[in-house]
């Protein structure tokens, strides 16, 4: 008798659990509603069975009924714990953290689905649902699109500059954000689901979904309540699958000013002076991710776009400037920096901005323009001011052209600011303290990173830059023009001098508590 009753209960609960699980996992509401009614119905059906069953003796009936009603949810709870335990062992995280995350996940899925605050569209304005949300698995697609939109929304909220999606192994993909220049893992997604997410991004970026190995480029836009943000996408085949990197562009358009990017008063005056001149070249130097583009836009912000005709050539256009003409290069379509520059010059601009000097032709046209009544702003991918001079000479630019066109060289590095909410006085050694006091430096204002909720335990929030500025005065121009400045000498001493200038600038920021010694070391060495 007991055994049979148990079998009945077990089957009921098994069914209950199955139904409950699908309730939790199903994103589609009407189906969820029907299943809920079904579950309630089955519960009552079995309570009835217990009530009239001759197999259960009278005195156990109420207990049996209660058990029937509650074992379902209880079993679901046990299943969740077991699953969480498994995940916690896999990911090396605490079981409570996993449970909390899962409950949030479930409540987000069960909660009434809000009209998404972010909408992904392709360059012609078609939404991601129009492009991707068709076909057999529409429900599944709708879930995939939710995940995609959530990833993009999270990246924007955290002010990430890049989203990187890579296969970890055959089963899982990792999603990482680059925030303040540092990569951080934000999610792990099961391979099949993540491949669908990658496909949806490729679809909205007008890329070929079927091509998974050959590198591809694309772009899409996100419409948010704060405005439109553009993204650059690159995909390529990788071991165990396909990797995708998404660059977040134009997020803080118009926000950069020369006053808030970290320049000292003296440095700002030098740049403003150069920008006020009708001609000459201001050249930004720095490796990838050093913030040259930001400074370039801050300089353009300083220029009156109404009275001066400004034209930019960029790859890609990162921020939209309301009153400037911006041209995006596209080497595949034959639109190169050099070609664009030539056509721009026919439009008689006052200010020309060259996204990046990569070849001799571009360098020569830009320098010649800077000699003939145009203010030219440009960037070059080198580590220091001296190496920029070396690079230009290496490219084959004549020393005479270089010396007459170039006015100011600026190289820069970005570093993270200490989080204001949790930074703590640095633990300095006795020798360090003695050293500082001998130099008359107040070492009590030196701080180090701690970590709190505000900064997601990193100890840093936001970034600022340090600059090394070189003005080409008459003497320097003369020595470049006469070829007195030998390349080998420049190469040997320039980088060293640049580095020590940077270290000096960085140290100032450490002493005033803006950043830490560790961060300075990480960036400048
Ligand atoms: Zn903090």
Q: In summary, what is this structure?
A:
The chain is an alpha/beta fold and 525 residues long. Helices cover 47% and strands 21% of the residues. The protein folds into three domains: 2-110; 119-249, Beta-Lactamase, CATH 3.30.450.90; 258-419 and 462-516, Rossmann fold (3-Layer(aba) Sandwich), CATH 3.40.50.
Question: Could you say which small molecules are bound to this protein?
Answer: zinc ion
Structural class by SSE content: alpha/beta
Number of helices: 17
| Poorly predicted regions | 1-18
CATH-wise, what's the superfamily of the largest domain? P-loop containing nucleotide triphosphate hydrolases
Task: Kindly describe this structure.
- With 525 residues, this protein is an alpha/beta fold.
- The protein has 3 domains: 2-110; 119-249, Beta-Lactamase (2-Layer Sandwich); 258-419 and 462-516, P-loop containing nucleotide triphosphate hydrolases (Rossmann fold), CATH 3.40.50.
- Helices cover 47% and strands 21% of the residues.
- The chain contains 17 helices and 16 strands.
- The strands form 3 sheets. A 7-stranded antiparallel beta sheet has the order 1-5-6-7-2-3-4, with helices on one face.
- Helix 6 crosses helix 7 (191-204) and helix 13 packs antiparallel against helix 15 (474-481).
- Mean pLDDT is 84; it is low at 1-18.
- Residues 419, 421-422, 451-452, 454-455, 459 line the site of zinc ion.
- Zinc ion binds at residues 419, 421-422, 451-452, 454-455, 459.
